[in-house]
Amino acid sequence: MRGYLLITGAFFVWSTWGITVRWLGLPATEIIFFNAVFAAVFQGGWLAVRGRREGARLMPDIVPSLWLGFFGLVNLLSFVYALKTTTVAAALLTHYVAPALVAVLAPLTVKDRVGRDTLAALAVAAAGLVFIFAGGLDFSDGRGIMGAASGTLSGLAYAGVILYSRVLSPRNHPLKLSLVQAVLTAVLIGAFIPWLKFRAPDVGQLSVIAMTSLFHSTLANVSYLKGIRSVTAQEAGVLGYLEPVLGITLAFIFLGEVPYPIALVGGAFVIGSGVSVIYRGSRSIGRGGVV
């Protein structure tokens, strides 16, 4: 049960990305670069204290950790770009092609078994997204189309994040994996700074980015990586459907993006699928299962 709660908590934090990106008003590359720099500082310091005491080493699995970092960078960069160029709903919903991909790829890559209950939950969540799409998402202009395409790319990369996290998290300290992602992101984007024409964020923007790097990129990352040790990749994907529902709700409250009634019906389906996964996890514990 603890693994499900850790992953769900991470998605609650990540669902605030939309309003954070809109408030900052900075280019996607700047947000992600400064976020990665702050995250590397936080995670490096935390790892120096906790990791040394717990025997965490940096070198094992460094190559697959770099792949995790690469997929994480593509995921976040394309997702933030989508949030800046289309509605929060469109960005989130196109991003969530990932669980369907994971459901197909996980048995072939990480050897997770696909339970009938998990597939049923995935089908319910997918039906909910169909309802939400049926409520109308405005892709009419070029920016909307580019935003939706970028959201889809982020979903493809996110599938890679889930699968690599599932492989690496059981045998690697979560802080190490998060730190590799942060450093790789800062280095790769930093290499292009002369061509990106960064402008310096003001103190308020830097404060928000620092908070985002602490909560979104450090605490939520560690929570997710700990949780996925005991949760299958498919279940983590289904739980991820909570993020678009929460993100769309926050966009309605803080940004005035009004969802259609049919989208609310779809949201209920999505939430129900995630709750069913958590409920099955708790029952498994009661029966002596390993969760």
Question: What are the salient characteristics of this protein?
Answer:
291 residues; mainly alpha; disordered C terminus
Q: What does this entry look like structurally?
A:
By secondary structure, this protein is mostly helical. It has one domain (2-48, 61-286). Helices cover 79% and strands 0% of the residues. Helix 4 packs antiparallel against helix 5. The longest helix is centred in the first third of the chain and has 27 residues, at 28-54. Mean pLDDT is 82; it is low at 285-291.
N to C succession of SSEs? HHHHHHHHHHHHHH
Overall domain count: 1
Give the N-terminus to C-terminus distance in angstroms: 6 Å
* Quaternary: single chain
How many strands, which pairing sense, and closed or not: the largest β-sheet? none
Number of helices: 14
**Uncertain parts:** 285-291
What fraction of residues sit in β-strands?
under 5%
Broad structural category: mainly alpha
Helix content: over 70%
Q: What is the radius of gyration?
A: 18 Å
For the secondary structure, the number of strands is 0
Query: What is the residue-mean pLDDT, rounded to a whole number?
Result: 82
Shape: globular
